[in-house]
Predict the structure.
Amino acid sequence: MNTLEIRDFEVLVENIKSCLLNFGIFKIEHVRKNKSSFLKMLTDGEIKLYERYLREKSRLEFLGGRVLLKQCLLRSINKDACRSVAFKDIDIKRGENGKPRLFIRDNEIDSVYFSISHKMDYIFCAVDYDSNIGIDVEKVDIKLIRLKSYYMTSKEEKIISGTIKVKDLLPAYYTMLWASKECLVKCLGQNLWQVLGNSELVEIRGKEYVLRYRLKDREIKVISNNFLYDGYVFSVIHGSEEKKKLVLH
């Protein structure tokens, strides 16, 4: 029996709650069915960005990501009885470097950490007001075994082969490593090649991948939590910011 894979969506949600408090997951089909109502939640500027996408799948990913992010933000903001913010009060604009910028009622908010990921059937989003976060959703893909030399060291391969008990799960373990490094890209604000060159898996503890990352003056340990559901890996890194550096988990 494959005890790694989560069978029920509600169990997946409860597992992710162990490391993230404010997140959301949409299936692309849900966004397609609710497209007309979701579009009403976007600002005029966001509608223009939506219309720039030529492929319907890309439009749905953009739309679902925006609505999920706004839902997560509103979940926190509207807990304060003195504040009432609506979907259209929130505007996510693109900065010059392509990085999203968050505005609420035309005021830029730079004290919120958020991360969005999408892959094929799923859109995954998370928000935090205190700590860096990086999330990723990836379809388990056997091609990652053939491409392992691009993102995996021989030491990492040995760690995975020494951990795995069911051979059929090998693609899932490889996908978890790839997703973990994608999370690092988002959490640390580094590009993919920097992360691949400076990170290394040092241990697997159940759903946790423990990675070492080399900074200029030191090494840090980062823990990625990975959840396997419906043939997808949902990966989460939740760090802390202190003097704009990720501190030890």
Remarks:
- The chain has two domains: 5-130, 134-246.
- Confidence is low (pLDDT under 50) at residues 240-249.
- The chain has nine helices and 14 strands.
- The two ends are 32 Å apart (CA to CA).
